[in-house]
Design goal:
The protein has one domain (2-123). It has helices at residues 23-42, 51-74, 93-112, 119-122, and strands at residues 2-3, 12-13, 77-78, 90-91. The strands form 2 sheets. It has a two-stranded antiparallel ribbon. The chain is mainly alpha-helical. The radius of gyration is 24 Å and the shape is elongated. The longest helix is centred in the middle third of the chain and has 24 residues, at 51-74. The chain is built from 4 helices and 4 strands. InterPro entries: Phage_term_ssu_P27.
Length: 144
């Protein structure tokens, strides 16, 4: 395992070759990991406890990509088997897996503060000093 440069020892990258057999997917996983951890580091939301969530997010991206390739080639609906009068067209299991991976990825992105809609809720809020009005100078607190 290697730590992403610039994150110190905050998030240690998993050994993707233990989880994935395709060298192209291993490389893609590394790129996703690096992109996510750098963005989280810059937003100051990266912590050691988020490592496994990031790993699940990367795997959701890869499963989505795998399934999307099959759906693009074969379509979202499986044709009925020839010769069987009771056979009907069904939704492809790859399409279902693709939708589930997309849903999982969206939930994890929101949890990690990566989706644009959720960023404000996760990052530190920059509090600005309130301007005092002229009338506030005349108001004094009354002690009892």
């Amino acid at each position: 395992m290697e730590a992403i440069e610039g994150t110190g020892q905050i998030a240690v990258e998993p050994d993707w070759s233990l989880l994935l057999s395709d060298p192209l997917e291993v490389e893609t996983a590394r790129h996703h990991w690096q992109r996510i951890t750098i963005e989280m580091r810059e937003r100051e939301t990266l912590a050691a406890s988020t490592g496994h969530s990031i790993q699940r997010l990367v795997l959701a991206y890869l499963i989505y990509d795998r399934s999307a390739r099959v759906v693009a080639e074969q379509g979202a609906v499986m044709k009925p088997k020839r010769g069987n009068p009771k056979a009907i067209a069904r939704i492809s299991p790859y399409f279902t897996a693709m939708r589930e991976a997309a849903s999982d990825a969206a939930a994890l992105e929101a949890e990690l503060g990566l989706s644009p809609r959720r960023r404000g809720g996760v990052t530190k809020v920059d509090r600005k000093n309130r301007k005092r009005s002229a009338a506030a100078a005349y108001l004094k607190s009354v002690e009892k």
